[in-house]
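Good morning N.,

You mentioned wanting to compare the apo and holo forms, so I went ahead and generated the holo version with magnesium ion. This is what I fed in:
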Amino acid sequence: MKTDKNLTISDVRVSVSCPGRNFVTVKIVTECGIYGVGDATVNGREMAVATYLQDHVAPCLIGRDAHQIEDIWQYLYKGVYWRKGPINMASIGGVDMALWDIKGKAAGLPVYELLGGRSRKAVGVYAHATGNTVDDTLDRAAALLEQGFKAVRLQTAVPGLDGSYGVLGDKKDYFQLQNDRPLPPELPWSTRKYMNSIEELFVEARARFGKEVELLHDVHSRLTPIEAARLGKMLEPFDLLFLEDAVAAENQDSYRIVRDHTTTPLAIGEIYNTIWDCKDMIQNQWIDYIRTAATHAGGITALRRIADFAALFHVRTAPHGAPDLSPICHAAQAHVDLWAPNFGIQEYVGFGTDASNEVFSYDMSVKEGMIHVGDSPGLGVDFDEDAAAKYPYNRSYLPVTRLEDGTLWSW
Ligand code: CS2
Ligand code: MG
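and this is what came out, ligand included:
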């Protein structure tokens, strides 16, 4: 029996707020009163996606049947003519999450049930340990392991490079790290200094924590393929779960070189917008984990399609889970993670701060290194528009990186 609830879309509201971080939130309301929420945040370009949604996407949604998630996805993807792109795909991602939320609420079922049900009892995660020195990083990792986490990403400042990636500096937590930067900060990089210092982190980590704990590392696209190949070989004895974003991969073919030289597992995808961006990587089996995010790759519909495609090639999923994704995206990913037969691991740095918890509520909790998703209908999240209004948008940028001679590099 089809539900008698009128799910015709009557309103689409877009909000940009900064409860600790800037978030773009889309709320889709239907005639019967059921509404859904989605995350469309693009870090550092928030107003562009908000305007795109408000001025160009919202008018096309009014009057459509919110049940037709696939048709609306295709309508926005093919109908725009221009296709792909971070702003376009994040806006589709936000709308798509809100529609799955609506469908779940209308059916009285959590989204993971609509996807095919749980494939596991909970979602395994990796946490982040970053520090100014190896000891500092490993002390933070020890505290996380003490809390029950089983997998930890390790990043340490590179000696001689002040403010290099991954280090908190005077910021208390990762949520603050990228907030309140009215212009992009400029940070230094030297591949030689990095390559000369990185091995020690993993030598010390294995010596201190043994072989059971899963260790990960993010290179943030700063190496060339042959440098990444060398790093992968160097880290083989330390048995990483994966090495992330070793090389910038607009040219997916670059990964063939890395793959040919090392058995260190490789992960990529946090800046990918579509299945097309990861197609060659996956079908050539150059990677082991695909890290596309629900927001940036076009929503739950897109993540599901990427996961199914990846499964054919033994590639597992490991969605991006940084704090510039709102709790709505974290929830959408947790539902997909719970279902995906080829789920690998979820990045986790917390769901929010006191301020963002005033604005977003979610039916998820973390125990013993796993996200437990409740059985609330839809995504189990809510967004308080009045609370959000107390935290106005605050322009902020990601950093840029320069080599020591001033050449602009990948951050
Ligand atoms: C990082 C991110 O979590 C990660 O793996 O690469 O912190 C990334 O720098 C930010 O999400 C960019 O907005
Ligand atoms: Mg990353």
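The longest strand covers residues 9-17.

Happy to go through it together on a call whenever suits you.

Best,
F.
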